[in-house]
Amino acid sequence: MEVCGTHTMSIAKNGIKNLLPKNIRLLSGPGCPVCVTPNHQIDKMIAYARQEDVIITTFGDMIKVPGSSSSLSREKSLGRDIRIVYSVNDALKLAENNPNKKIIFFGIGFETTTPTIAASLKDAKERKLKNYFVLSTHKLIPPAIKVILESEEVKVNGFLLPGHVSIIIGRKIYDFIAEKHKIPCAVTGFEPMDILRAILCLVNQTNNCKEQAYLSPKVENCYKRSVKEKGNQAAKDLVNEVFEVCDSEWRGIGIISNSGLKIREEYKEFDVEKNIEVKVEPTKENPACICGNILRGVNIPSDCALFGTTCTPENPVGPCMVSSEGTCAAYYKYGS
Predict the structure, then answer these.
(1) pTM above 0.90?
(2) Residue 152: pLDDT band by 50, 70, 90 thresholds?
(3) In this structure, is residue 304 part of a structural domain?
(4) How many Å apart are CA 330 and CA 35, to the nearest integer?
(5) Per the domain annotation, does 176 fall within a domain?
(6) I want to staple 161 with a disulfide (CB 3.0 to 4.6 A). Which of 47, 89, 102, 187 is the partner?
């Protein structure tokens, strides 16, 4: 199982599944931050967008994700001020240039993007900005892997671990997977040869552990050119200064303990939930969409009755078809 949307796309784009023997099956896990963001958080951002004197800023993938009854894209078409940004610094500039507007940034992402959001909050504090706010829906990968392993819903024989995330948090943090759950792992990059090499490492580990009982699974670093044992300490320190760990809801999985990040009390003036009241509509899910099952590896996109017919990139029903890292989008664009 890969738990990185960029891996999912690279595997599909390069036809890696077709190169493997039939006894090796690749599954996509909850590796897309857009996809795991639950409906109620999207509904909340839509509710903020409907307020006066508000500019919503977000990365491009989030704008088309359907909420319970609307999307940011639809709200934009109705005249709400919603802008796609390519960096959180764009949102900071908007706050500086529009002092009479409330600039709200939809903070999504895993450990890769969180340091940049933390830096923006620290920067906003130093600049004494009063109109910059963040809705923090950031999530942490290791607790999600732990839940997948403990649920035993899917039999995973090995993990392809995310390269970008691991640059920040390091290789060592995954040791619990091998030591406690006896599952081999490989941290890898995103080129086809990176992924194939990591798969080979997992196969070799599996075979060696079967043949030599004294051997134990381990977490191999197949991306040493970028990933270090303990990651990027400066980035981790910055995140810990601005955010604190909290429980968080994941689409298709539910509440995972200690899997999210909320803004610390010292930076509460930038926490939109503590500064701007909003009434959010009751959350509704599309019962026909199986995105949650796909994120857990229980199903693949072609199992969904909506896939490729009712649900397409032009008319997405669920976030797995919206995101450029979504499993459904990968299957639709490149085939299964």
Answers:
(1) yes
(2) confident
(3) no
(4) 13
(5) yes
(6) 187
Instruction: Give residue-wise pLDDT tens across range 80-92.
Output: 999 999 999 999 9
231: containing domain: 30-285
Residues in the chain, total = 336
The predicted-structure confidence for 184-201, as pLDDT tens digits, reads as follows 999 999 999 999 999 999
For residue 258, give both structure tokens: 């200690």
Residue 336 has pLDDT above 70, yes or no: no
In-domain check, residue 334: no
Tokens of 295: 């994120």
What gap in Å lies between CA 49 and CA 219, rounded to an integer? 44
- What whole-number percentage of the chain has pLDDT above 70? 100
CA–CA distance, 43 with 71 (Å, rounded to integer): 8
Question: H/E/C letters for each residue in the chain?
Answer: CECCHHHHHHHHHCCHHHHCCCCCCCCECCCCHHHHCCHHHHHHHHHHHCCCCEEEEECHHHHHCCCCCCCHHHHHHCCCCEEECCCHHHHHHHHHHCCCCEEEEEECCCCCCHHHHHHHHHHHHHHCCCCEEEEECCECHHHHHHHHHHHCCCCCCCEEECHHHHHHHCCHHHHHHHHHHCCCEEECCCCHHHHHHHHHHHHHHHHHHHHCCCCCCCEEECCCCCCCCCCCHHHHHHHHHHEEEEEEEECCCEEEEEEEEEECHHHHHHEHHHHCCCCCCCCCCCCCCCHHHHHCCCCCHHHCCCECCCECCCCCCCHHHHCCCCHHHHHHHHCC
pLDDT digits 0-9 by tens, 227-243: 999 999 999 999 999 99
Evaluate whether residue 291 is within a structural domain.
no
| CA 188 – CA 193 distance, rounded (Å) | 10
Closest among 91, 96, 136 to 259, alpha carbons compared: 136
What residues have CB less than 8 Å from 60, skipping those under 6 apart?
84, 86
Q: At 57, which CATH number? A: 3.40.50.11740
